[in-house]
Amino acid sequence: MQKQPEICAIVAVGPDNVIGRDGIMPWHSTTDFYHFRKMTVPYPCVFGRKTFENLPKRPLPNRLNLVCSSHYKNEYIDGVFYAKSFEHAISECVNAQRVFICGGVGVYRYALERDLIDVMYLTIIRNPILESEIKQNPDSYCRFPIDVKQEFLSSSKWSARPIVYPQSELPNAYDENICNFYKCSRVRGV
């Protein structure tokens, strides 16, 4: 009997649970990019079609990229597995220790509604300029399906611990965003 991989989700959330605008993240954070890469390499990464198509570089190197859409048939093309369902994508990862769900909203919602996530890697992005823009134009943004602070940082269903990187390990590029990283592990039996 094969062991199921640990199902992890990874998401960066800005003010008001915002995760995107017009198919891309509404911020640029070298610190969060560093964190995303550090957490996800060399593990398989599952995306919805739109999220994958909006990646600045695809496929992501050093990771199996799996893209879910009912429009696909299960096939590999240029090193990417195009799956017709989330289950088909996960079934390609039986030999992996863990699998990362990387968005978008539909893929996150699907995994949350079915209680599939074992570990949530959460980045809280703080940016006063973005916060002001969101307040002025709230309907222009895409949000994570649930309130991340309430669900992952304050709920007895999850055990959250901060992830802190030594300053010397982080990229030297200027980053106007303040990033707080958390590893939230599901508390089973609650």
Architecture overview:
This protein is α/β, with parallel strands linked by helices and 190 residues long. The chain has one domain: Dihydrofolate Reductase, subunit A (3-Layer(aba) Sandwich), CATH 3.40.430.10. It is built from six helices and eleven strands. The strands form two sheets. Strands 5-6-4-3-7-1-8-11-10 form a nine-stranded mixed sheet. A two-stranded antiparallel ribbon has the order 2-9. Helix 2 (49-53) links the parallel strand 3 and strand 4. The relative contact order is 0.23.
In short:
The protein has 190 residues and is an alpha/beta fold. Helix content is 24%, strand content 29%.
List the helices and strands and how they pair.
Layout: E1 6-13, E2 18-20, H1 30-40, E3 45-48, H2 49-53, E4 65-68, E5 75-77, E6 80-83, H3 86-91, E7 98-101, H4 105-113, E8 119-126, H5 128-136, E9 142-143, H6 148-153, E10 158-163, E11 178-186
Parallel strand pairs: 1-7, 1-8, 3-4, 3-7, 4-6
Antiparallel strand pairs: 2-9, 5-6, 8-11, 10-11
Question: Which descriptors would you attach to this protein?
Answer:
190 residues, alpha/beta, Dihydrofolate Reductase, subunit A, nine-stranded mixed beta sheet, two-stranded antiparallel sheet
- Counting copies of identical and different chains, the oligomeric state is single chain
Strand residue percentage: 25-35%
Tally of DSSP β-strands: 11
Structural class from helices and strands?
alpha/beta
Shape call: globular
Q: Ranges with pLDDT <50 over ≥5 residues?
A: none
